[in-house]
Amino acid sequence: MTIFASSAARFLLQAVAAHDTVIMRQVPPVRSWFEQVVFIASGISTLLVLVLIAGLVAAMFAVRRSVQRAHEALDRRIADFGKRVDDFNDLLGKVHRRAETVVEVGGMAMDGIAWGAKKIGERRRRRRKSRADKAAAAGGTTGAAQVEAPLDDRRDDDGNNDERDSPYDDSRDKRK
Fold first, then answer.
1. Which residues contact 141 (CB under 8 A, 6 or more apart)?
2. What is the pLDDT of residues 119-146, one digit of tens each?
3. What secondary structure does DSSP assign to 93-128, as a single string?
4. From CA 34, how far away is CA 36, in angstroms rounded?
5. Rounded distance, CA 130 to CA 109, Å?
6. Which of 107, 146, 166, 167 could form a disulfide with 112 if both were Cys (CB 3.0 to 4.6 A apart)?
7. What is the per-residue burial (b if ≥16 Cβ within 10 Å, else e) of 9-43?
8. What is the torsion angle, in degrees rounded to the nearest 10, for the CA atoms of residue 163, residue 165, residue 169 and residue 174?
9. Alpha-carbon distance 160 to 156, whole Å?
């Protein structure tokens, strides 16, 4: 209760003294024209500084947003470049597989050529032998002895593949 009593006493004292109170209004000091110009320039410069700071803050946010967009665009380009590198690697793998196929086909062709040359050489030897046998039977001599170098077939190392009919019969796999 003492709080209310003390505040009520204050209001009572103020009410009693209100009729003696003089209300005064402050009057600004009289300024010269130069002081008035400086006062106005000070106010304008304060406003301009506030506008400049607000513009700088807005420009910083615009630059930040622009940098974020540039960063996202760069990330997209890097991802696109990564996809292109992956596509290039896939294409390079396909080229590599095709090259291996060409090497394989070339090896099979070389095997076929070697097989054919061997068969042709065997036929020539048989023909020469049959001609020599016929000449010997007729009592004649054979022509100048021709020395023939044997063809080197890399698959025919064991010597028992004479009855082979196909150049594609790969006996290398069987010799493990």
1. 135
2. 898 888 888 888 888 888 887 555 544 4
3. HHHHHHHHHHHHHHHHHHHHHHHHHHHHHHHHHHHH
4. 5
5. 31
6. 167
7. eeeeeeeeeeeeeeeeeeeeeeeeeeeeeeeeeee
8. -10
9. 8
For residues 58 and 65, the answer to whether their CB atoms sit within 8 Å is: no
Count the Cβ atoms, other than its own, within 10 Å of residue 151. Answer: 16
Within 8 A by CB and 6+ apart from 124, the residues are 148
In the prediction, which pLDDT does 2 show?
62
pLDDT at 159 over 70: no
If you average pLDDT over every residue of the chain, what do you get? 80
Q: Do residues 155 and 172 make contact, with C-beta atoms less than 8 angstroms apart?
A: yes
CB 151 within 8 A of CB 118: yes
